[in-house]
Amino acid sequence: MARDHVIDSVEQKYGEWTLCFQWCLYDYEDGKPENNDKGFRFIWKKPEGKLQAARGQARIPDIEAIIKLTEAAKKQGWAYKGDEKTI
What we know:
- The structure is a single chain.
- By secondary structure, the protein is mainly beta.
- It has one domain.
- Helices cover about 15% and strands about 40% of the residues.
- A hairpin with a 2-residue loop joins β1 and β2.
């Protein structure tokens, strides 16, 4: 089981819900830092502000949402090669 730590996040409102594109560090809790890994995910935030846990699935409303959120992330300077925060 992995714990995720959000490094950065960009968000887009859809009605009362918010679609988040997040850059995360995944901690696999085996005590070995070399097994930790960074990655990206889409996740929904409920109207009350809590994340919607959905076993790795986030329905994306349209491809334009993906483009808007990834472009916003690039403008903020996050994408990575190894441990560097670069474009």
